[in-house]
């Protein structure tokens, strides 16, 4: 069976690099189109990235000789789907252009996330939101994934919300520096330090989970109606966002209820055995001091959500700690899993 | 006027070192007694500490020639007050022994903190709790200070509690490694990592602020009755605990109310112009990304509480960020300020 | 073909953990014997290591149920070879006891390293030193590998020494904290800091390379006769020792000579296609700022030596930078490669 | 006595900030002129620096209301001396313009450093080089200080060179991130990592010490003639460059000779009791593991050179470790000390 030709927009950035890495030898997709800004356009990916590749394995051989173009749908020669890691300053328009030209856009950017016609999708959580694609007026379609900070949190909430109803969530993040891209955070700001602020992050964290856990009504997504309060912090960790959450439920479950619910949770990616799907979407660690980025980040090849420290909360109902890999599960990996789901469900026409 | 002779118990540990440093050239106190474990007893402080002194200024000259003894009150030759940085495994008994022998014990250890006859004191917050000293049956008296994590939080709550009444507090800490003493946290556990757990810390954080903000009734301290939920985390920061708090009030103040209350807050240490008292106990930073350990830790020579990011909370009422220096304001400095207060109030008899 | 039964001495320590990890599903060896101190003896490995396992993948399933014994050869039931990661305070005697009982000891400890009858072996460098095993008087034999700091340095020198003769070597190391084991370096000593001293390290670095590059004469190993001066430093890096070297040759090669020599270098592990052998023992990076621990550590699954920045030295002849993985290539991996070599050469009798 | 009016060029950068801080309440100088690029010109320093001030004490009050201008000498209203922390892309021309307009330029930039008519001065080392100022043709004069990396090294060599003659020096640096300015090093490049390369640094390190230790001949400075080989590395340390050196002497001194020479070393800044002069220019630490940035950086308020680990070198003669504060002694502090020397010697006319 022939592979689908795909492209990566924003191929030179941090998320773009992860796309390039995760797409190496992919069973469904073959990368033929790499787009970036004017500085890089016209050069090969290998040439441009020689001193900018920041992942600890080498640049995949397949990508090195691809000549980078500008992010324009005119030039894509048979590409049916693009992954977008574009900067939000241009992602909105560029992604729309690709969609208008018939290309499916799997975007990690924030621009279209809150559009009620666009799924804000985490494949295990809300694949049924794909239904709203029909309501998009372009021939290509746009699917987004959520902000990295709340990705794991939302996964840990999903099966509990279904059974017990979430009423409110306090969340407190300790976010890795890779989340800010490259060059990103200056070392003078974060070495031996924490910064209790990330521009725009709390705003996203307080509205995106409700959309992910929302319902489709009249061809649009309607967000769930619980409240979230977020404190977002930057810490000197390379990869891996750790989030402490306190949650109030409509109907308070027991500890055993929660652990059992997490253990049994499984979504479409697991049913369809998607290449990037973690076997166990939520992994609970029993140790008192877990999860930790250093020890748990690679669980499920960076695609699992690792949870620990479930205990009663003296104000809300329960509290726990969530870890997820911000550039894999929280960004490029989540997007690729969404694309794999579309492929397996036959939603990428050829 | 002659200085009061004082001792330091646990003089070789992290908190002990801070005591030694802060007591250099102190106008009220002169150190004549240093006590530590058998390994160190009989040797001079300079000899023992040569490779164990971990503060970036040198060992104060005055301390170098003092011969360390075991922590026994029999040997103190005129010492009227001791500062205790003893390990909690022995602090309880040893401190009681000193108190029984007529010595005032200013303790940073947790053992006596929750005794209703013992002030859990932060000099700006609850100096009126000294009243319960009368109910202690020993000739010497024991005064404790709170855990480092909630020190700054409690100070930031104090004037608001007085005016508006605290109803509940969610707190999320990012705590420095110096809080674990030396050798303390192994580098393999925390370099480029966060650990979402500190043994015993959340328990203390959920009960100590209420005692600090409590009232004296029938010669005992009765804790205030609000609830606290704490998430305590270790981060790779050297000194300085950063705490995010969300607070619900009995009567919700406006933003201006809160800022004005903090600005005007002042306690007995300021009125009595105590040597270690910060001019401004609570310093509010207007910048979006403050307070930060690296930039704000030394505010008020490490004795001020630095607050920032006051904003509405979508679940409780208000949220903000608190920073305080864990080994100065949160430990040795708080204890010394308590001792200075006792001195100025004439509570150290000679 | 049946696998050889092997043991790991010092199984709970840092090097022991790496042995356990690298031996998972090994084609030649099966672990049946795990030895550690009294604290652990009698318990299963899984039980003991629950909170002490410090590698980011989980404890291999095979090891979890093995009951730990004391390091005594009496109890080994058919084990023909042991890997030793024992502390040097006991490694000398214990390893001799195992050897006397007929077991081959592959040791990472320093105790027997400088014995002229014991190979100090890096499989690509000096496999011909195995000849001296005959001169060992025990029925089992002891083979050691060098200190982690000079492992990569020695590999980078080997083919140049053969062709051009080393006359002198200045080396400056920046060593990872994992080299000190666990709990090892206290965070207060190294966070945001460097320590220009590692106990005993310079002494080893100044004599071990000469033995590795020595010759067999009269059944003993005679060290090569060049001089080394070492400056050893600890830096806040998790894994990976980076070493700057300046080298004077007997006959000065050209830059092209050196690069070609490194590129063509290959040893017995490559010829015999040993499971753990890196395809390319020495990998040269052309980029101006490489090698770096974060980007290059996993080259050849942590078994390759990564070299960069070859340039003329204004005092000696040439200078360059060497990186090797201190707990894989510099310790457990080097030892396992030595064992694989023995196996393939038929030196493990059964 | 009236203070001299001075300016700071490049006032918003890292070195500029240090100048502003060190000049607060200075007994000789009063800052009236702050210059920076177009982005800042026309605004007050306080306004511009609100979120860019990176030193842990607050912006000095005196500087906040000064309106920043472009770096042009036309607008300086009575300024007799400027401190330059300008970027090297413009420092050359701008500094010359100021000198031509009659202003003394104390520069931390590299542009004029190797001009034989310009002192490359470290006040304790080579104040006699001021003699060449006469040969500068401008009415104002330019005095530079050396690169931060070799500042402390050169001080440690100075008195030994005078007595025993330096023949060659190998140096290996571990340099703090603040040396790269702000935003400077991206965190993704250095967190838990080392980078064995700093652009242009080794070139400077291999020629500047010889000029500092050179002699005045025919009104020009002639560099000393020994060779240096440098390996320069970036490490995750905030402030403080640590340098390992191995040195060969013309006439080999004993260990006692060296220690005595360092202890007795003193220069003009000490004789003239300059405000910023460290009492002891070279401080030797006896402990096995010192100097370290964290513990020794503030020695002499960041103006002393801290040395340790003196031991024999098996290839050259002696080796040791040098630490100096890169943004104080290695940059702004060194420049200010040079200015203080000029003032006291009456070389700033008014």
UniProtKB/TrEMBL annotation, chains A, B, C, D:
List the catalytic activities from the record. L-aspartate 4-semialdehyde + phosphate + NADP(+) = 4-phospho-L-aspartate + NADPH + H(+)
* Active-site residues from the entry: 148 (acyl-thioester intermediate), 241 (proton acceptor)
Question: What is the protein's name according to its record?
Answer: Aspartate-semialdehyde dehydrogenase
Write down a Pfam family by its short name.
Semialdhyde_dhC
Per the database record, which ranges form the Semialdehyde dehydrogenase NAD-binding domain?
5-133
List, alphabetically, the InterPro entries matched.
ASADH-related (IPR051823), Asp-semialdehyde_DH_CS (IPR000319), Asp_semi-ald_DH_pep-lack (IPR005676), Asp_semialdehyde_DH (IPR012080), NAD(P)-bd_dom_sf (IPR036291), Semialdehyde_DH_NAD-bd (IPR000534), Semialdhyde_DH_dimer_dom (IPR012280)
Q: What class of enzyme is it?
A: oxidoreductase
Gene3D superfamilies xrefs: Dihydrodipicolinate Reductase, domain 2, NAD(P)-binding Rossmann-like Domain
**Keyword Metal-binding, does the record have it?**
no
Q: What biological function has been recorded for the protein in this entry? A: Catalyzes the NADPH-dependent formation of L-aspartate-semialdehyde (L-ASA) by the reductive dephosphorylation of L-aspartyl-4-phosphate.
State where phosphate binds. 113, 204
Q: Which residues make up the binding site for substrate?
A: 175, 201, 234
Keywords, comma-separated and alphabetical:
Amino-acid biosynthesis, Diaminopimelate biosynthesis, Lysine biosynthesis, Methionine biosynthesis, NADP, Oxidoreductase, Threonine biosynthesis
Q: Where does NADP(+) bind?
A: 12-15, 39-40, 178-179, 326-327
How does the annotation summarize its subunit structure?
Answer: Homodimer.
EC numbers for this chain:
1.2.1.11
